[in-house]
Amino acid sequence: MSEPRVDYARFGRQIALPELGPEGHRRLSTTAVRFEPGNELLRATHERAGGLVSPDAAIVVSVPDAASRPVAAWASIEAARRILGQIPQVIPEGLLARLGR
Length: 101
Prior knowledge:
This protein is mostly helical. The chain has one domain (about 10-95). It is built from five helices and three strands; from the N terminus they run ααβαββαα. It has helices at about 10-15, 20-30, 40-50, 70-85, 95-100, and strands at about 30-35, 50-55, 60. Strand 1 (about 30-35), helix 3 and strand 2 form a beta-alpha-beta unit. Helix 1 runs parallel beside helix 4 (about 70-85). The chain starts with 7 loop residues before the first helix and ends with a helix.
């Protein structure tokens, strides 16, 4: 029997950053983020996670030019890290393969 699939695009931030907590989630929902390159999947994923997307946002997250669910989940996680003042991360080697299973 295979393991159940997790919808990382929808729940990735909560899984990856359980320490975000209520205050972090509140801050994420009130802070506008811009993704470069931007695309519809990134915008929709971040908005569904409670964040705002704006072309003139103060927080800019650079992402690979790809529109996959793993990249969208990572972008939302990275936006949360920056809002909390944590050091930005590069996509860890193998992360996209693990999320895409």
